[in-house]
Design goal:
Helices cover 40% and strands 12% of the residues. Strands 5, 6, 7, 8, 9, 10, 11, 12 and 13 form a nine-stranded mixed β-sheet that branches. The longest helix has 25 residues. This is PiggyBac transposable element-derived protein domain-containing protein.
Length: 610
């Protein structure tokens, strides 16, 4: 659009708003609750800067605004829709105002007290489980909503392909050697058992512990690990698990840096959005999955505990900490469908798509907060937002970032759809918060002498959604040390799947089960299927079979001893390989004479009667 036509349209719009201003100011002079004579000016200079523009100079003001909009400042190079939003947001009745660096006006008085709840604050959807997940009644069924059977089958297919390649490579290196028993292809129930062991290791805080310690046989190990699979088999499966087709990976990497895990991750995110409708308060923030290996998009964030890792931007329910949407920061993507902007404006716009036009509120920190972004969310997506603001933003007046103020004091600035507050919690420190949800200068009385504005207390109550999810993941973390970044993302998916599945289970069953009990029941239910199939194998040792039967709670079958046939004694060590043709009269277990107990006829009759 031509610049002259754009200036003409803005001038006409402002003239219309100024005419509305004159009509409203005459009707509200007597009913104004926050009029100009109530304002206390700190200095004479501030009083001069805050004087209203006379009505006969409104046309000059419009021309000045147009001149500012056509300036070459990079912050003002905005689409016409955002220019209109800014002009509409600044529309207020008469009163003193603050002026920012870019000319944005913030009025000191809240001249339109809210009598009714604003339409953008009326939530149209409730926090509830959606139809696709309402029938889930067990721990595994709830978990299977997020890590679906199709995802497991895809992982199984690519893992077996990697195992076959490994077998071929081993056979080529040593043609005389046979394939080891732990290098066989896996099954779906064994893959579930592998994931279950990861959950159980995280449950006992042993996710970073040496695997040899978990499989020790001197009494310090964990029986469930040795009962489920051998240490060599677990390590082999962990090293060979894959999530994509390696033969086509190079081609896909030309358009996507995250090609090795893109399919599984996108399916998981879609399942999270389809299963649950979040509450009215949401949080956007970043997470960091610890990783120090080689990766194109590994980042360094010094204020995170891990410092190095893979950054994930998340949209989380601020009440029950359900993960709604995720996006991995994959660096600068090659040209293609995944080449998107990583600016905060575009990142937030992509994350809020599942909840667009639902009248919810979104809370974020100062890396995301922007004047244009908050107006864009309100007008285009009908979402209110609250966030802290960096003090170098051009829309912040100078008086809002001054530190020479009394502690526990607040300064408010108002526009039609957005409110700004500067709060001094202590000497030489100020916190600036911007909100499209709050439209008055209310102080939270529960804060006592601190006199915190309601905007500040609301931000504090909803800002920690993503941080709590990070903490929940760390409490029972399944992550293990790995040099492959897809495994780091897979561990992160398992952690968040357990959190979401627990929320679904609690809602469907209407119980307050602890997350430790949920993860324990989930892990054991995924292991039992594999234990049943393993117990049917004939080549496992007897002591291992007995442990499996004890774990499953099944009675051991009676041993059938063929008379006159020599079999191995069940009580002797396996290395002795001692054969016997004797058996126990009570359970028919084969035993040698060393473990037999001799009784005379009278004692035998007495023993049988007892």
């Amino acid at each position: 659009m031509d610049i002259e036509r754009q200036e003409e349209r803005i001038r006409a719009m402002l003239e219309e708003e100024l005419s509305d201003y004159s009509d409203e100011s005459s009707s509200e002079d007597e009913t104004d609750h926050c009029s100009e004579h109530e304002v206390n000016y700190d200095t004479e200079e501030e009083r001069i800067d805050s004087v209203d523009v006379p009505s006969n100079s409104r046309q000059e003001e419009a021309n000045a605004i147009i001149a500012n909009e056509s300036d070459s400042d990079p912050d003002d190079d905005l689409p016409l829709s955002l220019v209109r939003q800014r002009a509409s947001a600044s529309r207020q009745v008469s009163g003193p105002f603050y002026t920012s660096k870019d000319g944005t006006k913030w009025y000191k008085n809240c001249q339109r007290p809210n009598v009714r709840l604003r339409s953008e604050n009326i939530v149209t959807e409730q926090a509830q489980v959606k139809n696709i997940a309402r029938d889930a009644s067990t721990e595994y069924e709830c978990w299977n909503i997020f890590v679906t059977s199709d995802m497991l089958q895809e992982i199984l297919t690519h893992t077996n392909s990697s195992i076959r390649h490994r077998q071929t490579k081993t056979a080529a290196e040593n043609s005389s050697a046979e394939t080891s028993f732990y290098m066989q292809e896996t099954t779906l129930c064994e893959l579930k058992a592998l994931i279950a062991l990861l959950y159980l290791a995280g449950l006992i805080k042993s996710n970073r512990q040496s695997l040899k310690d978990l499989w020790r046989t001197d009494g310090t190990g964990v029986d469930i690990f040795r009962t489920t699979m051998s240490l060599q088999r677990f390590q082999f499966l962990q090293n060979n698990i894959r999530f994509d087709d390696k033969s086509t990976r190079d081609e896909r990497k030309q358009t996507d840096n995250m090609a090795a895990f893109r399919s599984i991750f996108d399916q998981f995110v879609q399942c999270c959005q389809n299963a649950y409708s979040p509450s009215e308060f949401l949080t956007i923030d970043e997470m960091l999955l610890s990783f120090r290996g080689r990766c194109l998009f590994r980042v360094y964030i010094p204020n995170k505990p891990a410092k190095y890792g893979i950054k994930i931007l998340a949209l989380v329910d601020a009440k029950n900490f359900y993960v709604v949407n995720l996006e991995v920061y994959a660096g600068k993507q090659p040209s293609g469908p995944y080449a998107v902007s990583n600016r905060p404006f575009e990142v937030v716009e992509r994350l809020i798509q599942p909840v667009a036009r639902s009248h919810r509120n979104v809370t974020f920190d100062n890396w995301f907060t922007g004047y244009e972004l908050m107006l864009h969310l309100l007008n285009e997506y009908r979402l209110t937002s609250v966030g802290t603001v960096r003090k170098n933003k051009r829309q912040i007046p100078e008086s809002f970032i001054r530190t020479d103020r009394q502690p526990n004091s607040s300064v408010f600035g108002f526009q039609k759809d957005i409110t700004l507050v500067s709060y001094a919690p202590k000497k030489n420190k100020v916190v600036v918060v911007m909100s499209t949800m709050h439209h008055d200068n209310s102080i939270d009385e529960s804060t006592g002498e601190k006199q915190k504005p309601e905007m500040i207390t609301f931000y504090n109550s909803t800002k920690a959604g993503v941080d709590v999810v990070d903490e929940l993941c760390a409490n029972y973390n399944v992550s293990r040390n790995s040099k492959r970044w897809p495994m780091t993302l897979f561990y992160g998916v398992l952690n968040m799947a357990a959190i979401n599945a627990c929320i679904i289970y609690r809602t469907n069953k209407n119980v307050t089960i602890k997350r430790t009990e949920f993860i324990r029941s989930l892990g054991l239910s995924m292991i039992y299927e594999h234990l049943h199939s393993r117990n049917k194998k004939k080549n496992i040792p007897t002591y291992l079979r007995q442990r499996i039967e004890k774990q499953l709670g099944e009675p051991s079958p009676r041993h059938v001893n063929v008379p006159g046939r020599y079999v191995r004694c069940q009580d002797c060590p396996y290395k002795k390989d001692r054969k016997t043709k004797h058996s126990c009269n009570a359970c028919a277990k084969p035993i040698c004479m060393e473990h037999a107990k001799f009784l005379c006829e009278n004692c035998a009759e007495l023993d049988s009667s007892l």
